[in-house]
Amino acid sequence: MAFTPRGLEASFFEVLDQHRAFLLAALKRGGEEPAGGGMSLASSSEVLSSIEKIIQDIVTSLARNEAPAFTIDNRSSWENIKFEDSVGLHMVSHCTTRKIKSDSPKSVKNFALILKILSMIYKLVQSNTYATKRDIYYTDSQLFGNQTVVDNIINDISCMLKVPRRSLHILSTSKGLIAGDLKYLEEDGTKVNCTRATAIAVPSNIQGIQNLITDAKFLLIVEKDATFQRLLDDNFCNKMSPCIMVTGKGVPDLNTRLLVKKLWDTFHIPAFTLVDADPHGIEIMCIYKYGSMAMSFEAHNLTVPAIRWLGLLPSDIKRLNIPKGTLIPLTKRDQMKLDSILKRPYITCQPFWRKEMEIMADSKMKAEIQALTFLSSDYLSRVYLPNKLKFGGWI
């Protein structure tokens, strides 16, 4: 992959190139998890065999006049979650489990719903067809109640079978967008060019995309769609070419996280987050970088620990003299979220992050990225981001 700046002097990318060299050196030293580590894609026959074994266990329990139950790793307890700087949050090898019993009033409905979705997955895998989570919900929306119930059950099944969710032949509807210096082929052979003026929807089958081509110097992960669209309107991708921009429109869906991971595994270019200077923005950044408890069983396929926090930093608020009138007081919920993040295991290896969060806690104020428009309407794209990228203003 050639790295020839277009429209900017090579010296502009000097610090970025140094950062990339540092990341590559860390990879060679084994400081990052190699691509493809962790839970691997399962073949159709393996998935079918796993489901058949579960059904056989249920039949055996019934034959013994015992109430069948599903055993699932408990992902809601920090006791079962281990943190490694090179992987993020992932399940410990021998974790506690929870049982979903068929004879318990509290869990009998959940047991039945898992059995129903397992049968649907079996048919999908057997016929080599795919469905979205939304498709599954609408097969019986009254039974499921809401989409979240379906989403949680699919995650539980993936964890129980020990296979990535995409091996179940269930796809998520992507909400993320991508723009910038990137071309690729979709699974059906469609050529996709992200260099257009408008953004491209993140594909629903990240596993199937191939022939990725870029000259990008960096990847910018933008928290909010409004900020992403503003950067597009300001022609940021062309002015800062070559680069790639991605947004998950808030908390990222699985496909957006898989895409960010694939871009990192394929190109190993520096990746930065642009989030609001508030606990919610920090939480979103942590999901991209270190993962979440709910998906900790698949952390190796989703996390990119090499991601750095570019902005908006709480320290930037004072440094740029952003007026108090544009700031927002932290709510009680914000303070609880901030306290929760500060207690997480990965904060111990991020002293600069801790310092920024302590600045926020002391000031009891938060700021949206849009607060920068007080300085000028295009301050973010014209001054803030270029200076951060040129002089290494990330942590």
From TrEMBL:
Its cofactor is Mg(2+). CDD domains: TOPRIM_TopoIIB_SPO (cd00223). Residues 218-389 form the Topoisomerase 6 subunit A/Spo11 TOPRIM domain. InterPro entries: Meiosis_Spo11, Meiotic_Spo11, Spo11/TopoVI_A, Spo11/TopoVI_A_N, Spo11/TopoVI_A_sf, TOPRIM_Topo6A/Spo11, WH-like_DNA-bd_sf. Transmembrane segments: none annotated. It is an enzyme of class 5 (isomerase). Residues 2-44 form the Meiosis-specific protein Spo11 domain. GO terms for biological process: double-strand break repair involved in meiotic recombination; male meiosis I; meiotic DNA double-strand break formation; meiotic DNA double-strand break processing; meiotic telomere clustering; oogenesis; ovarian follicle development; protein localization to chromosome. It comes from the Eukaryota. Residues 109-170 form the Spo11/DNA topoisomerase VI subunit A N-terminal domain. It catalyses: ATP-dependent breakage, passage and rejoining of double-stranded DNA. GO terms for cellular component: chromosome, telomeric region; nuclear chromosome. Its EC number is 5.6.2.2. Belongs to the TOP6A family. Component of a topoisomerase 6 complex specifically required for meiotic recombination. Together with TOP6BL, mediates DNA cleavage that forms the double-strand breaks (DSB) that initiate meiotic recombination. The complex promotes relaxation of negative and positive supercoiled DNA and DNA decatenation through cleavage and ligation cycles. Essential for the phosphorylation of SMC3, HORMAD1 and HORMAD2. Heterotetramer of SPO11 and 2 TOP6BL chains. Interacts with TOP6BL. This is Meiotic recombination protein SPO11. It comes from Capra hircus (Goat).
